[in-house]
Amino acid sequence: QVQLVESGGGSVQAGGSLRLSCAASGSIFSINAMGWYRRAPGKQRELVATITSGGNTNYADSVKGRFTISRANAKNTVYLQMNSLKPEDTAVYYCTASVVGISYNDYWGQGTQVTVSS
Hints:
Elements: E1 2-7, E2 10-13, E3 18-26, E4 30-39, E5 46-51, E6 57-59, E7 67-72, E8 77-82, E9 91-100, E10 104-108, E11 112-117
Parallel strand pairs: 2-11
Antiparallel strand pairs: 1-3, 3-8, 4-5, 4-9, 5-6, 7-8, 9-10, 9-11
């Protein structure tokens, strides 16, 4: 079994910064893509950013230039540095990982709340 544990959420004023972390643990041989999604109140879950094991990244247009995704492969950890935060970034943020272990599965974290006030 694999667990993803997120940390780093909280409340911040518009223009501020937060850094989210997500550590994977358990029966892991390797991890392919890792990423972050978010769900704002009353909205569907949306992609924020993804990163491959080789470091290739992809971002939603709404966060390009403000958010940076990175990962530490040796620690099975993915990060999301969020700068110039806006009230519309308020959401529950979920990390995800495509894990090769006993089998190949996608796993999700429990979510961490990010609240940006104007």
